[in-house]
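In full, the data:

***
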Amino acid sequence: MEITLLYTSLITILTIFLAFKVGIARGKTNTLLGEGDSSELLQSIRSHGNLIEHAPLALLLLLLLEMHGVTDWKLHLLGSSFFLLRILHAYGLSISRESTPYRLVGALGSWAMMFGMSIYGIYVYLV
């Protein structure tokens, strides 16, 4: 379970970084609850929240695949791809409130990774 530990640790660091950005934006806008009228704060909140919404399932899938003996290189490919896609999404959301290529690739890529891991998990179960 060392591989899942690595990617869970990386995702946790990213989560803390994004939470810190929310705190900084709250301090700048003096908004303790909600997003007020701040686009920057809303973007920070959603960037952090979106990671929190998606990462647990992806990391759980990665863990279960690792426990079922999926080869290391496949696990690293899945874990690193998901991590990089989440960085792309967070970056894309931080630079614009509108859709950006980074945000689009990050979101769609993350969904595709999670869908792929789910299908692969079903395959591993059946075989």
